[in-house]
């Protein structure tokens, strides 16, 4: 059994929550009113969504997406650059953590 440790967390749910907390902390809306409007629109549209959605995310898909990131681009609000993901020392563990994060995210929405 392989145990993944991310920032001293080793439980899958704790790791996914840590990722969620980091991304939430850097995703602060510029306008509360506009944010609420867009959130309502998203929820309305998402409730009508039909399809497989995110349920088929796996390590191969994540690896393929990371491998296709363009190197040398500016980071996002979270400070992550393509290089952070592309050249990570423990790439397979990173892919697994990202899969778990998105799987947990998907389960919380559905």
Topology (elements, then pairings):
Elements lengths: L11 H14 L6 H16 L11 H9 L14 H5 L4 H19 L1
Protein model, in words:
This protein is mostly helical and 110 residues long. The protein has a domain at 54-110. The protein contains 5 helices and no strands.
The radius of gyration over CA amounts to 16 Å
Main sheet record: none
Outline type: globular
Structural class: mainly alpha
Distance from first to last alpha carbon: 30 Å
The count of strands amounts to 0
Oligomeric state of the chains in view: single chain
Poorly predicted runs of 5 or more residues: none
- Number of DSSP helical runs: 5
Strand % is under 5%
Q: What is the element string, with H for helices and E for strands? A: HHHHH
Mean of pLDDT:
80
Helix content: 55-70%
Can you tag this structure with a few keywords?
mainly alpha; 110 residues; 5 helices
Summarize, please.
The protein has 110 residues and is an all-alpha fold. 57% of the residues lie in helices and 0% in strands. It has a domain at 54-110.
């Amino acid at each position: 059994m392989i145990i993944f440790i991310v920032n001293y967390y080793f439980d899958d749910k704790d790791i996914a929550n840590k990722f969620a907390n980091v991304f939430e902390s850097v995703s602060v809306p510029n306008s509360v009113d506009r944010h609420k409007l867009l959130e309502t629109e998203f929820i309305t549209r998402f409730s009508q969504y039909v399809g497989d959605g995110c349920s088929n995310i796996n390590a191969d898909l994540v690896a393929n997406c990371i491998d296709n990131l363009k190197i040398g681009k500016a980071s996002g609000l979270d400070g992550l650059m393509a290089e952070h993901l592309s050249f990570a020392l423990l790439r397979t563990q990173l892919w697994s953590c990202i899969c778990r994060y998105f799987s947990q995210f998907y389960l919380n929405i559905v």
